[in-house]
């Protein structure tokens, strides 16, 4: 039963695996660029999952064609709108994180978060 469910919904399983990869990358890496990549993988997994949940097989995009106005003929446009909005926000957040990373690198000449923390503690004394 569980294997059959997994095989029928492998797309959702892929999204969850991607999210796990991104989350573990975010937690375990010490390099700031690798952490940003992990966060982007998590974002992508979330958007994939939302897009999969919004898709209904056999339905079309919500654009009235040939006078068909039946709600059952179209997919819900809200998940795709959320995905597009999320992509715009994540690009902005990524740009901000990369700019802050550049500033940290210029000041401390390293991208290792532990090394930056150590140097910050030394500066505070």
Automatic annotation (TrEMBL):
Q: Which Pfam families match?
A: Oxidored_q2
Q: Where are the transmembrane segments?
A: 12-29, 36-56, 76-98
Q: Does the keyword Ubl conjugation apply?
A: no
Q: Does the keyword Transmembrane apply?
A: yes
Where does this protein reside within or beyond the cell? Cell membrane
Gene3D superfamilies membership: 1.10.287.3510
* Top-level lineage group: Bacteria
Q: Which UniProt keywords apply?
A: Cell membrane, Membrane, Transmembrane, Transmembrane helix
Bilayer disposition of the protein:
Multi-pass membrane protein
Q: Which GO terms describe its cellular component?
A: plasma membrane
Family of the protein in this entry: Belongs to the CPA3 antiporters (TC 2.A.63) subunit C family.
Protein name per UniProt? Na(+)/H(+) antiporter subunit C
This chain's source organism reads Acetatifactor muris
């Amino acid at each position: 039963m569980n294997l059959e469910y997994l095989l029928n919904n492998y797309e959702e399983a892929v999204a969850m695996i991607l999210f796990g990869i991104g989350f573990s990358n975010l937690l375990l890496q010490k390099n700031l660029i690798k952490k940003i990549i992990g966060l982007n993988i998590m974002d992508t997994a979330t958007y994939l999952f939302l897009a999969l949940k919004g898709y209904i097989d056999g339905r079309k995009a919500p654009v009235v064609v040939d006078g068909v106005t039946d709600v059952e003929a179209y997919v819900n446009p809200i998940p795709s709108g959320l995905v597009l909005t999320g992509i715009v926000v994540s690009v902005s957040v990524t740009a901000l994180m990369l700019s802050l990373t550049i500033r940290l690198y210029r000041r401390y000449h390293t991208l290792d978060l532990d090394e930056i923390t150590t140097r910050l503690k030394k500066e505070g004394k």
